[in-house]
Amino acid sequence: MNKFEQNVQSKRNDAVDSGVGFAVSFVFFTAIFVIGTVIELLGK
């Protein structure tokens, strides 16, 4: 093992971090879509 494998800063599972990142980005883009749709419907 090299020195970076011996001194790990975070031992958390990468899948959990990936899932959280996906969920946050999904919620963000969904909110943008909903806001845009509401603005479009109010403009008619």
UniProtKB/TrEMBL annotation:
InterPro entries: YqzM. This is YqzM family protein. It comes from Lederbergia wuyishanensis. It comes from the Bacteria. It holds the Pfam family YqzM. Keywords: Membrane, Transmembrane, Transmembrane helix. The chain crosses the membrane at residues 20-42.
